[in-house]
Amino acid sequence: MTTFSMYTASIPVFKQILNSLSAILDKAEAHAADKKIDPNALLQYRLFPDMLPFTRQIQIACDFAKGAAARLGGQEVPSYEDKEVTFADLKARIAKTLAYIDSVPQAQIEGSEDRAITTGSGEKTKHFVGQTYLFHYALPHFYFHATTAYDILRHNGLEVGKKDFIGSY
User: Fold this and answer.
1) Whether residue 1 has pLDDT greater than 60
2) Beta strands 126-129 and 116-119: pairing type?
3) What is the pLDDT of residues 16-37, one digit of tens each?
4) pLDDT digits 0-9 by tens, 99-115
5) Where are the beta strands (DSSP E) in the chain?
6) 162 pLDDT exceeds 70?
């Protein structure tokens, strides 16, 4: 009988997609240089005026990955300043996020299915247990922002496909 692993359902998934986003950032930077596109035009691009720009999509995807690792591991969520303005800055944020989620011991995440987790504050406070938090809140938000970042670049002519987004595992 195989047991369910909260660690396996979270950390490797975040790592897979964050590593893919990092590789896509390299392609985006090369694309901008090759096509003589101002990198800031891609970094600040939005799919629609009421949506957040590309840079913010990457920041939020990182925030959900580190937030989930911390909360599932029973740790304080580290705070990152949202100051990235270049592709290199975004790659550094992803690398910092990957290093953080790697630092959360697997043993602290395992068994977190029923851990009480609270997000937000004031009227935006939400209460979960670990498994519900991971599957119905953290992962959907993480994938939404990672996918939106990918879609922004694809919309702007970057030649990437599903294999680029999924990456390797």
Assistant:
1) no
2) antiparallel
3) 999 999 999 999 999 999 999 9
4) 999 999 999 999 999 99
5) 116-119, 126-129
6) yes
DSSP 112-132: GGG-EEEES-GGG-EEEEHHH
Residue 119's contacts (CB-CB under 8 Å, 6 or more residues apart) are 67, 71, 125, 126, 128, 133, 137
β-sheet bridge partners, residue 119: 126
Residue 109 CA to residue 72 CA, distance in Å, equals: 5
The amino acid at 51: M
The reported pTM is 0.96
* Residue at 69: amino acid letter: A
Residue whose structure tokens are 């910092």: 96
**3-state DSSP percent of the chain in helix, strand and coil, to 5:** 65, 5, 35
